[in-house]
Automatic annotation (TrEMBL), chain A:
<dbReference type="InterPro" id="IPR036249">
    <property type="entry name" value="Thioredoxin-like_sf"/>
</dbReference>
<keyword id="KW-0001">2Fe-2S</keyword>
<dbReference type="InterPro" id="IPR002023">
    <property type="entry name" value="NuoE-like"/>
</dbReference>
<dbReference type="InterPro" id="IPR042128">
    <property type="entry name" value="NuoE_dom"/>
</dbReference>
<dbReference type="InterPro" id="IPR041921">
    <property type="entry name" value="NuoE_N"/>
</dbReference>
<keyword id="KW-0411">Iron-sulfur</keyword>
<keyword id="KW-0479">Metal-binding</keyword>
<dbReference type="Pfam" id="PF01257">
    <property type="entry name" value="2Fe-2S_thioredx"/>
</dbReference>
<comment type="similarity">
    <text>Belongs to the complex I 24 kDa subunit family.</text>
</comment>
Automatic annotation (TrEMBL), chain B:
<dbReference type="InterPro" id="IPR011538">
    <property type="entry name" value="Nuo51_FMN-bd"/>
</dbReference>
<comment type="similarity">
    <text>Belongs to the complex I 51 kDa subunit family.</text>
</comment>
<feature type="domain" description="NADH-ubiquinone oxidoreductase 51kDa subunit iron-sulphur binding">
    <location>
        <begin position="327"/>
        <end position="372"/>
    </location>
</feature>
<dbReference type="Pfam" id="PF10531">
    <property type="entry name" value="SLBB"/>
</dbReference>
<keyword id="KW-0408">Iron</keyword>
<dbReference type="InterPro" id="IPR001949">
    <property type="entry name" value="NADH-UbQ_OxRdtase_51kDa_CS"/>
</dbReference>
<keyword id="KW-0520">NAD</keyword>
<dbReference type="Pfam" id="PF10589">
    <property type="entry name" value="NADH_4Fe-4S"/>
</dbReference>
<dbReference type="InterPro" id="IPR019554">
    <property type="entry name" value="Soluble_ligand-bd"/>
</dbReference>
Length: 159, 422
């Protein structure tokens, strides 16, 4: 049995705002997932059930949406999420070196979280800044023309 | 040389706010457009020969002309496709971060032309700065009466919403984008019906690329003949071209449609970086066929690039140099396409991971001679006509042309049982 969890009044208010903009309730599914993830960091099974109930759709249906998109996290992530571009321009410009450095520095590979919960490392499709490859994002911040030497300084900004 | 799209873009200062934009002629095209009939605007855009800048290259005005204008459709939508996720493509980011009002003005005129009262900007999540600037510009446009009810006293109403996606390449496909906006999995839809007739929530909908929409105010201001005169080759207007990879100065440039690859790489991008030699380039993003040295002087317009066996695509070029393994290069691309396949139809869902696996085995020195035939088989099975949308056929374009132009590099991997570049 999955414990029943409910949405907070704040989450419901934000989701209601999105529901008002669309002709059918379930059309707010992606926005609702984004809102709850914003508050809770990720989408647990309990959160998924709560959102599905609120949008009057089945949890399975909502999970099919949640798991489709790269940036809906269905597993817990660290306090900071590193998205390293692994697409073609960054490949040519040597993102693999940056990846090697990150692995060494953090002791994690793609898809893993450091044991202190500080960083999750994920690969990401083209960040659209190809004239400044290699590139990565941490949370909402973009770093371009990244060199292996820059990494320590960049990582030190995040706790 | 005229550069209408980038004339007000400079990254040495903050982007224009509403007042700066108006001072430099902004929203004059909207005033003019609102005095014309919607059909008249569509005719002007069709006559300008503006073609979709997202990659498909379809005549924009003709696309609009399929929207029913008989008064029986009270709800219609206009959507700006700002989900720029084609690897190697970074032009729409520049247009949105550089001059957000230009896009908004283009959208209002386009929405008026199809008499849509609701519009969306479908922005990819990674474009945080563009999102902030667009939101601010939309607020300014609402406050000035360019958006909302009774725009400039004409009785025309238009709402505009910014939707941020949650990351999936297939959202750039226009029918998949519609499903994403409806809160569903972004799988492409069967066509017909086309979105122009039955799109978002079943209502007539136009989806246009950001760069396409940014051209609209200039066409309205200066007319279709002016727009056609901007092109150097077979196509009208200017284009935001880009180059990334091992060149001296990677970047973006607004140039007459139809410049040559040589002008772009040698004059704009400063040629290859020291110690690197040119081997080939994907002219318009990851899903286009390689062009090589012999194509240096072809014009980069839709027709000329097609005649050379590739596609202009997004016009942002990725250069392959002699220090980069062509098999590794293509493996990187197929990894991307395999991961981003929506899984809806079998050739794409099964074929792309298979392709990726074969290329990886070659990179690891485990390639077999028969793998070349297997890869060639895939380029046919995943080619046009066998899949629901253009993702898999697009994925096969760099592979089939790499097998043609860099075949000896594939063979070396198999013969030497290793990647010669590692």
């Amino acid at each position: 049995m999955i414990a029943q969890e409910t949405l907070t009044p704040e989450e419901m208010e934000e989701i209601d705002h999105e529901i008002a903009l669309v002709p059918v309730r379930r059309a707010a599914a992606i926005e609702a997932l984004k809102i709850v993830q914003q508050h809770r960091g990720w989408i647990s099974d309990d959160s998924l059930h709560a959102i599905a109930g609120y949008l009057e759709m089945s949890p399975e249906e909502l999970d099919s949406v949640a798991t489709f998109y790269n940036l809906v996290f269905r597993k817990p992530v660290g306090r900071n999420v590193i998205l390293l571009c692994d697409s073609i321009s960054c490949y040519v410009m040597g993102y693999e070196k940056i990846y090697g450095q990150l692995r060494e520095r953090l002791g994690i590979s793609f898809g893993q979280t450091t044991s202190d919960g500080r960083f999750t490392l994920l690969p990401n499709a083209c960040l659209g800044t190809c004239d400044h490859a290699p590139a990565l994002m941490i949370n909402n911040e973009l770093f371009r023309d990244v060199t292996a030497n820059d990494l320590d300084e960049i990582l030190d900004r995040y706790h | 040389m005229e550069t209408p799209l980038t004339q007000h873009i400079s990254f040495d200062r903050p982007c224009y706010n509403l007042r700066d934009y108006e001072k430099n002629g902004g929203y004059q095209a909207l005033r003019k457009a609102l005095s014309l009939s919607p059909e008249n605007i569509t005719n002007i855009v069709q006559a300008s020969d503006l073609k979709g800048r997202g990659g498909a290259g379809f005549n924009t005005g003709m696309k609009w002309s399929f929207v029913p204008m008989n008064g029986h459709h009270p709800v219609k939508y206009l959507i700006a496709n700002a989900d720029e996720m084609e690897p190697g493509t970074f032009k729409d980011r520049m247009l949105m971060e550089g001059n957000p009002h230009q896009l908004i003005e283009g959208m209002i005129i386009s929405a008026f032309a199809i008499q849509a009262n609701i519009s969306y900007i479908f922005l990819r999540w990674a474009y945080k700065k563009a999102g902030r600037l667009l939101k601010h510009a939309m607020d300014e446009a609402y406050a000035a009466g360019y958006l909302g009810k009774n725009i400039l006293g004409t009785g025309y109403n238009l709402e505009m919403y910014l939707h941020t996606g949650v990351g999936r390449y297939i959202c750039g496909e226009e029918t998949a984008l519609l499903n994403a906006l409806e809160g569903k999995r972004a799988t492409p839809r069967a066509k017909p019906p086309f979105p122009q007739v039955s799109g978002l929530f079943g209502k007539p909908t136009i989806v246009n690329n950001v760069e396409t929409l940014c051209n609209i105010p200039h066409i309205i201001n200066n007319g279709p003949e002016w727009f056609k005169s901007l092109g150097k080759g077979n196509d009208a207007g200017t284009k935001i071209y880009g180059v990334s990879g091992r060149v001296r100065k990677p970047g973006l440039w607004e140039l007459p449609m139809g410049v040559s690859m040589r002008e772009l790489i040698e004059d704009c991008a400063g040629g290859m970086a020291n110690g690197y030699a040119f081997r080939g380039a994907l002219p318009g993003g990851a899903s286009t066929d390689f062009l090589v040295q012999e194509h240096m002087d072809i014009k980069l317009d839709y027709k000329s690039v097609a005649a050379a066996g590739s596609r202009l695509g997004t016009g942002t070029m990725i250069v392959l140099d002699d220090h980069t393994c062509p098999v590794g290069f293509v493996h990187n691309l197929e990894h991307f396409f395999a991961q981003e396949s929506c899984g809806w139809c079998t050739p794409c869902r099964e074929g792309l991971p298979w392709t990726e696996k074969i290329l990886l085995s070659m990179e690891r020195g485990e390639g077999r001679p028969e793998d070349l035939q297997l890869l060639e088989m895939h380029t046919r099975y995943l080619g046009p006509g066998n899949t629901f949308c253009a993702l898999a056929p697009g994925a096969m374009e760099p592979l089939q042309s790499a097998l043609k132009y860099f075949r000896e590099d594939f063979e070396k991997h198999i013969d030497q049982k290793k990647c010669p570049w590692r």
